[in-house]
């Protein structure tokens, strides 16, 4: 059992293979956080908690004014397990609960603790799962009102993963109002840490950024109703000198796809506090008597030896215990998507001719992207009208799917179910289905509005339209796109006082719809997309095992995007396609081999007009598909290592590697991503090999000692062309 309860000193200690997390109830019933870090033999870690009270810190209400002061004790300066507003802790709060009398002063005190075998579930929300995990539940109650907080902890020993979620239960006879419902507080008593976050924009997602945690609050967030391209709901807190293979690192990943906030703050005594959860901007949730509010889950991984180990834990946990369905571990079909090949300009014959040519190269699935429905020939109309444009296709959808199947490929299709065009039959019939504020002209993203997914009738309408197609047509794959962020937030279903619930109710509605569709169509492979990687998060991965990583398909730009993404998310989740050169987003000209090499470390697919390729290019794609399939198991199931960062100014190269878990095989991808003159070849130190075994590289005669390849390194040589790439396959000599 990974949870140790010590009733004598009231400590609750969670153990994973390498980490230890400890909570303690003090003699006043407050729940304190004593330690989260490297696994140690059991010890009560509370000895360091009471560091003195800084001036202007309130002494806890548990002390009477006439008591002799215990001047070491203030909630403002003691590490808390869950922070609330209004009780004297002026650091960032996680939970702000306003009672019916208007006060905002929750004072949580310990009630009980229990342990269960298996991982808890969260009603209506995505979460990691696993029968082998353990659950600790700690219940707290406000000192005055019958309002309870249940803290849930899931412990996955093997992955050094601890998950958290909070339930707020109203047992009073009046409503309460939750003004902030974050999923965690994590207090560190030492203050010198860095915060690594992954910012970006459309077509440039998850750019690595590292800063010291400064005094005040460093915040990573989204108020867009989606996790967004601009900040990913994943951060790393680490020692200032931590790196890929050394130092303490804590990953914080939200299992949520809506507006979020992750805050890292440092106070006047240099204590660091992390809080994370639903963004509290425009959030206000009424909880009626006997009702419960559940926060999303946060998934924390601790590594005692840098980011590489932390990423490995996330990769395995996400693949095995977050993704679900038939395709979670299965090889995904190599697909061709027509978007960059044709955009809106296609008909059925064109698609079939692309499918036929793609089949010759080894492609297995044809995906028809945007533009097949309603009267859509550009992005200004028809979202919401999910019936085929038979005039454009030249046949029914079922017939088109059959023609593609007859060409030897499976058939996949694009939807954007959450959005609506004002020029659509659905909008004309139900204008209230879209988010709009009464009396105001709405703001529009990409000429469209967002459907109010908090409403059941809206979800039912979309479900009926999509499921009709999935039942009537032989569809093997769905790309679920979302090309707006949510503004004009107002739901026609809720009273004025409850409009602060809409953003979160949208997410609950979306998750319900996704659960329904993915359950009803278990054989369909679903790929999530939001203008590329605008909703690449653990929430969406619970429903769909892969995400279109970015609309930027330039392989040189993709190095940064995929490298940044890899800190939390495994290769199997990253949609990656070979597209045309010059690239449509950057105009960069790159070798076809480089485009393929980068796409291998994702799902590998094509996104170009294959009918326009030369014979030589087709031969190269054939070779790539065969090579990708040959190394598929290694790449998808192996251990991913970042060797040279594309964000570094010290190198002209980006190199990553995947080694098999037994160390007998590895594959290395290197790309020269800058074109400076007079630059030496790189030697790169490999990882994950067996030190005393010899390896061949790409089947060559020469043998290299594993230890030498890891300590001295492997020389990387490049052709003298722009942006060359090399793939090195290492196999152990038995
Ligand atoms: C945004 C996606 O990221 C693209 O791949 C494509 O599907 C377009 N939407 C279609 O409108």
Contiguous uncertain segments of 5+ residues: none
Number of domains: 3
Q: In what range is the share of β-strand residues?
A: 25-35%
Distance between the termini: 39 Å
Mean pLDDT: 96
Which CATH architecture of the largest domain is right?
Answer: Distorted Sandwich
What does this structure look like?
Strands 6, 7, 8, 9, 11, 12, 14, 15, 19 and 20 form a 10-stranded antiparallel sheet that branches. A 9-stranded parallel sheet has the order 29-28-27-26-23-22-21-31-30. Strands 5, 10, 13, 16, 17 and 18 form a 6-stranded antiparallel sheet that branches. By secondary structure, it is an alpha+beta fold. The longest helix is centred in the C-terminal third of the chain and has 23 residues, at 615-637. The chain has 13 helices and 39 strands. The structure holds (2R,3S,4R,5S)-2-(hydroxymethyl)piperidine-3,4,5-triol. The site of (2R,3S,4R,5S)-2-(hydroxymethyl)piperidine-3,4,5-triol has 11 residues, from loops.
List the helices and strands and how they pair.
Blueprint: E1 3-6, E2 11-15, E3 19-25, E4 31-38, E5 95-98, E6 108-117, E7 134-142, E8 147-156, E9 161-170, E10 176-188, E11 193-201, E12 204-212, E13 216-222, E14 234-239, E15 249-255, E16 260-266, E17 272-278, E18 285-287, E19 292-294, E20 297-303, H1 306-321, E21 335-337, H2 339-342, H3 348-361, E22 365-368, H4 390-393, H5 397-406, E23 410-415, E24 419-420, H6 425-429, E25 449-450, H7 456-472, E26 477-480, H8 502-520, E27 525-528, H9 538-541, E28 546-548, H10 555-565, E29 574-575, E30 577-579, H11 592-600, E31 605-607, H12 615-637, E32 639-644, E33 653-659, E34 665-672, E35 682-684, E36 694-697, E37 703-705, H13 706-711, E38 714-716, E39 725-732
Parallel strand pairs: 21-22, 21-31, 22-23, 23-26, 26-27, 27-28, 28-29, 30-31
Antiparallel strand pairs: 1-2, 2-3, 3-4, 5-10, 6-7, 7-8, 8-9, 9-19, 9-20, 10-17, 10-18, 11-12, 11-14, 13-16, 14-15, 15-20, 16-17, 24-25, 32-33, 33-34, 34-39, 35-38, 36-37, 36-39
Helix pairs in contact: 7-8, 10-11, 11-12
Bound molecules: (2R,3S,4R,5S)-2-(hydroxymethyl)piperidine-3,4,5-triol.
């Amino acid at each position: 059992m990974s949870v140790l309860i010590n009733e004598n000193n009231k400590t609750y200690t969670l153990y994973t293979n390498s980490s230890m997390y400890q909570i303690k109830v003090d003699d006043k019933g407050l729940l304190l956080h004593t330690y989260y870090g490297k696994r140690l033999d059991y010890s009560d870690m509370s000895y360091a908690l009471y560091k003195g009270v800084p001036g202007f810190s309130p002494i806890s209400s548990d002390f009477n004014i006439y008591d002799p002061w215990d001047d070491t004790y203030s909630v403002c300066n003691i590490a808390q397990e869950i922070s609330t507003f209004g009780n004297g802790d002026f650091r960032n709060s996680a939970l702000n609960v306003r009672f019916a009398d208007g006060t905002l002063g929750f004072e949580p005190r310990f009630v009980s603790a229990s342990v269960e075998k298996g991982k808890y579930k969260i009603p209506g929300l995505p979460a990691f799962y696993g029968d082998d995990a353990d659950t600790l539940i700690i219940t707290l109650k406000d000192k005055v009102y019958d309002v309870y907080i249940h803290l849930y902890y899931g412990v996955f020993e093997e992955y050094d993963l601890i998950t958290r979620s909070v339930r707020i239960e109203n047992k009073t006879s009046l409503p309460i109002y939750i003004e902030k419902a974050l999923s965690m507080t994590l207090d560190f008593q030492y203050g010198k840490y860095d915060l690594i976050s992954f910012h970006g924009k459309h077509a440039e997602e998850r750019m690595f950024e590292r800063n010291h945690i400064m005094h005040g609050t460093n915040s990573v967030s989204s108020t867009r109703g989606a996790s967004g391209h601009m900040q990913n709901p994943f951060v790393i807190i680490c020692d200032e000198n931590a790196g890929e293979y050394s130092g303490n690192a804590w990953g914080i990943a939200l299992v949520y796809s809506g507006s979020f906030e992750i805050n890292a703050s440092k106070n006047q005594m240099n204590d660091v506090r992390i809080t994370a959860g639903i963004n509290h901007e425009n959030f206000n949730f009424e909880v009626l008597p006997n009702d419960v509010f559940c926060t999303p889950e946060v998934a924390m991984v601790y590594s005692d030896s840098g980011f590489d180990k932390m990423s490995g834990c996330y990769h395995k946990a996400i693949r095995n215990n977050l993704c679900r369905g038939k395709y979670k571990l299965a090889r995904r079909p190599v697909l061709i998507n027509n978007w960059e090949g044709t955009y809106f300009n296609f008909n059925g014959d064109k698609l079939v001719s692309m499918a036929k040519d793609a089949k010759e190269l080894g492609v297995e699935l044809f995906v028809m992207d945007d533009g097949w429905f309603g009267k859509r020939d550009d992005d200004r109309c028809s979202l919401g009208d999910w019936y085929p444009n038979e005039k454009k296709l030249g046949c029914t959808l079922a017939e088109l799917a059959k023609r593609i199947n007859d060409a030897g490929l499976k058939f996949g299709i694009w939807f954007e179910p959450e959005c609506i065009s004002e020029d659509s039959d659905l909008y004309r019939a139900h204008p209230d289905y879209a988010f709009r504020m009464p009396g105001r002209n709405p703001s529009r993203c990409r000429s469209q509005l967002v459907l109010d997914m908090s409403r059941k009738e809206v979800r039912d309408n979309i479900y009926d339209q999509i499921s009709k197609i999935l039942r009537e047509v032989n569809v093997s794959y769905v790309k679920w796109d979302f090309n707006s962020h949510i503004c004009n937030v107002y739901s026609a279903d809720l009273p004025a006082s409850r409009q602060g619930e809409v953003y979160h109710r949208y997410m609950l509605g979306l998750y319900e719809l996704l659960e329904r569709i993915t359950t009803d169509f278990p054989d369909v492979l679903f790929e999530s997309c939001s203008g590329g990687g605008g909703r690449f998060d653990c929430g969406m991965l619970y429903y769909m095992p892969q995400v279109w990583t970015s609309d930027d398909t330039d392989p040189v730009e993709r190095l940064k995007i995929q490298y940044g993404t890899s800190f939390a998310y495994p290769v199997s989740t990253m949609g990656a396609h070979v597209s045309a050169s010059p690239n449509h987003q950057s105009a960069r000209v790159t070798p076809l081999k480089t485009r393929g090499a980068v796409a291998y470390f994702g799902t590998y697919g094509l996104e170009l007009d294959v009918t326009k390729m030369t014979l030589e290019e087709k031969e190269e794609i054939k070779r790539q598909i065969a090579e990708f399939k040959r190394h598929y198991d290694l790449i998808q199931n192996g251990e991913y290592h970042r060797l040279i960062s594309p964000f570094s100014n010290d190198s002209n190269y980006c190199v990553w590697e995947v080694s098999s878990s037994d160390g007998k095989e590895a594959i290395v991808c290197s790309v020269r991503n800058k074109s400076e003159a007079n630059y030496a070849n790189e030697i790169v130190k490999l990882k994950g090999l067996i030190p005393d075994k010899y390896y061949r590289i790409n089947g060559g005669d020469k043998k290299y000692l594993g230890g030498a390849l890891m300590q001295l390194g492997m020389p990387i040589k490049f052709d003298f062309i722009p942006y060359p790439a090399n793939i090195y396959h290492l196999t152990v000599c038995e």
